[in-house]
């Protein structure tokens, strides 16, 4: 399946969704978790055959997510991922979510898709219908109905109840992959600038949180693997700090003010300028990072990525 976002190309990506017995991660548990891998079109589903087995389901969820550069969800930042994180810590006694970049399509559509305001509902099924994808579904239930079906399954063990839940969960992730593949109209460079993106370096995986320009400084924060030697680098043209304890890093680039534009002096930075050839705003060893008050998103992301590949 093709990628809508150029920032997910060549990355290990899964589409993720859970069904739960309620909304509170303190008092509710996970019924099922589905992982769909768009590149191979492989579907993996985990089902909690009884509440006492949730711990092993949680551990497998964490293992699968730890192998991903990016995880696509729908409202996952507000529900699925915080819910899973709390259950990992409280029930499985694990460290919580591993390192990956969350790609919450609900959030991206709400913030960056003008047509979102015209829909009565921004539910996943409403978006599927708007994009002409609703006929690809086979399930006939919603998430709330899964709770009652699960309770009935625990009491009766009827296999068709379990399969109905799994079909709904499977359709959610397969359909979300189709939604993602249809979102070529989203401003992915701007989204990456503001929301961040996954990044691979020669030795590590990193999650960039997003960049910000204040005055003549371009700042970006993110997280990579902990456990390496801490770093603090302060040069005339940039600064970089990495915490070996948390894996958190911060990069600052010091820009040149040329009136209505902010420029990065690439000759003063540890980057290969061949990576910028053909990019609008590049020339004579300089890169236009901001024109007027508007950041050049593709240029900023390219610059940040080039720097982090050298430093992280």
Give the gist of this structure.
With 312 residues, the chain is of the alpha+beta class. Helices cover 32% and strands 27% of the residues.
Structure description:
The longest helix is centred in the middle third of the chain and has 23 residues, at about 160-180. This protein folds into 2 domains: about 5-180, Ribonuclease H-like superfamily/Ribonuclease H (Nucleotidyltransferase, domain 5); about 190-310, no CATH class. The mean pLDDT is about 95. The protein contains 8 helices and 16 strands. The strands form 3 sheets. The protein has a 6-stranded antiparallel beta sheet with strand order 6-7-8-11-10-9. A 5-stranded mixed beta sheet has the order 3-2-1-4-5, with helices on both faces. Strand 15 and strand 16 (about 295) form a beta hairpin. It is about 30% helix and about 25% strand.
List the helices and strands and how they pair.
Blueprint (H helix, E strand, L loop, with lengths): L12 E8 L9 E8 L4 E6 L6 H13 L3 E4 L6 H11 L10 E4 H8 L11 H7 L12 H14 L2 H23 L6 H8 L1 E4 L4 E10 L2 E8 L6 E4 L3 E5 L5 E7 L1 E2 L3 E5 L16 E2 L2 E6 L2 E2 L1 H15 L1
Parallel strand pairs: 1-4, 4-5
Antiparallel strand pairs: 1-2, 2-3, 6-7, 7-8, 8-11, 9-10, 10-11, 12-13, 13-15, 14-15, 15-16
How would you describe this structure in keywords?
Nucleotidyltransferase, domain 5; 312 residues; 6-stranded antiparallel beta sheet; 2 domains; 16 strands; alpha+beta
Strand arrangement, major sheet: 6-7-8-11-10-9
Mean pLDDT: 94
Order of helices and strands: EEEHEHEHHHHHEEEEEEEEEEEH
Report the portion of residues in β strands.
25-35%
Radius of gyration: 22 Å
Class inferred from helices and paired strands: alpha+beta
Morphology call: globular
> What is the H level of CATH, i.e. the homologous superfamily of the largest domain?
Ribonuclease H-like superfamily/Ribonuclease H
Q: According to CATH, what is the class of the largest domain? A: Alpha Beta
- Describe the largest sheet: 6 strands, antiparallel
At CATH level 2, the architecture of the largest domain is 2-Layer Sandwich
- Low-confidence region ranges: none
> How many H/I helical runs?
8
For the secondary structure, the number of strands is: 16
End-to-end separation: 30 Å
Domain unit count: 2
Percent of residues in helical segments?
A: 25-40%
């Amino acid at each position: 399946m093709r990628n809508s976002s150029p920032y997910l190309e060549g990355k290990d990506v899964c589409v993720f969704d859970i069904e739960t017995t309620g909304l509170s991660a303190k008092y509710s548990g996970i019924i099922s978790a589905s992982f769909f891998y768009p590149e191979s079109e492989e579907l993996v589903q985990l089902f909690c055959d009884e509440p006492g087995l949730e711990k092993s389901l949680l551990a497998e969820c964490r293992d699968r997510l730890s192998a991903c550069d990016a995880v696509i969800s729908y409202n996952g930042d507000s529900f699925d991922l915080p819910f899973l994180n709390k259950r990992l810590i409280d029930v499985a006694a694990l460290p919580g979510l591993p390192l990956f970049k969350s790609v919450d399509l609900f959030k991206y559509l709400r913030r960056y898709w003008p047509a979102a305001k015209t829909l009565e509902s921004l539910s996943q099924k409403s978006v599927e219908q708007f994009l002409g994808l609703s006929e690809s579904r086979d399930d006939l239930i919603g998430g709330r109905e899964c709770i009652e079906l699960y309770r009935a399954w625990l009491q009766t063990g009827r296999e068709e109840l379990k399969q109905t839940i799994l079909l709904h969960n499977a359709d959610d992730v397969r359909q979300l992959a189709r939604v993602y593949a249809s979102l070529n109209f989203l401003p992915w460079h701007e989204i990456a600038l503001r929301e961040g993106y996954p990044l691979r370096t020669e030795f590590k995986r990193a999650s960039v949180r997003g960049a910000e320009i204040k005055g003549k400084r371009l700042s970006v924060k993110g997280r990579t693997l902990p456990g390496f030697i801490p770093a603090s680098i302060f040069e005339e043209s940039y600064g970089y700090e990495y915490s070996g304890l948390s894996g958190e890093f911060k990069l600052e680039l010091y820009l040149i003010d040329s009136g209505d534009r902010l420029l990065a002096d690439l000759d003063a930075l540890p980057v290969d300028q061949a990576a910028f050839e053909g990019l609008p705003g590049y020339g004579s060893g300089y890169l236009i990072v901001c024109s007027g008050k508007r950041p050049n998103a593709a240029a900023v992301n390219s610059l940040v990525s080039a720097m982090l590949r050298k430093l992280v």
